[in-house]
Each structure stands twice: as C-alpha cells, then as structure tokens.
Amino acid sequence: xxxxxxxxxxxxxxxxxxxxxxxxxxxxxxxxxxxxxxxxxxxxxxxxxxxxxxxxxxxxxxxxxxxxxxxxxxxxxxxxxxxxxxxxxxxxxxxxxxxxxxxxxxxxxxxxxxxxxxxxxxxxxxxxxxxxxxxxxxxxxxxxxxxxxxxxxxxxx
Length: 157
Hints:
The chain has helices at 11-35, 56-74, 78-100, 113-132, 138-153; strands spanning 47-49, 52-54. It has 157 residues and is mainly alpha-helical.
C-alpha cells in the first residue's frame, strides 16, 4: 500500500515551490511567444529565452502548462495534489521523450539538453509536491502519525 503523508507540515513550502515553477513556466512561455513572433510554429531556430531554447509551439504549450501548474498550486483540495502528481509525471515523460529525439527532425518543440534537464527537475519537484500535499481530516493525519511512531519504535523495523 502506498504511503502518502496527509497534512504534511511542509505542505505550504511544496505548494510555493509548485507555484514558483508554474510562474516561471508562464513567464518563459510569454517571453517565448514574443521572441518567436513571426517564425514558423515548429521552427528549429536558435531562439533562447530565460536560458532555454524555444519555438512558437513550445512557448504556447508552456503558457498553457504553466497556468495549469499555477492552478494546481493554488487549489486547496486533493485535486491540486492529484494535479501535481500527474503534471510531474507528464514533465518527466516529455523530457525523456524529447531527449530521445533531441538531434532529429522529430524535435518539434526545439528542445535542447538544458531544456530537458530543467523539465526533469521541474517534473521531480512537482512529483514531490504531489506526494506531500495531500489533504485529509485531522483524525486521519493523527492516526497515520501514531502508526508511524509505533512501527518505528519496534526493534527490527
């Protein structure tokens, strides 16, 4: 059975991290839209914004995903928890897929290795945020803490 902490004390810190990631992605996307204005949608040009290479398609996707990440960070229920888990996995899968096609014509989002690394870091932080921002009744959280202390107090565990 999975162990996902309920009402973790560091939950606000993780939500702020998710919000900052979402804000960075939105700002990157908006600057990317201005930088690549007039270019082809899937251009493979050398357009760099905030340290990452981009094109019009990647900039537009970034604005959309950044807004989704921001929504997940400010949403107070378990819906935000599930969004952060899912978006973290999406970022990791996309980063691996883009790394696989980095030097080919299939690199339609104009990724560079730095973009892959940043996407993986963002995915890991969002995944951690999703693991630690689950909300539940105080009774469930207290039961979980008691169970943790009772199992850690046993010898051999």
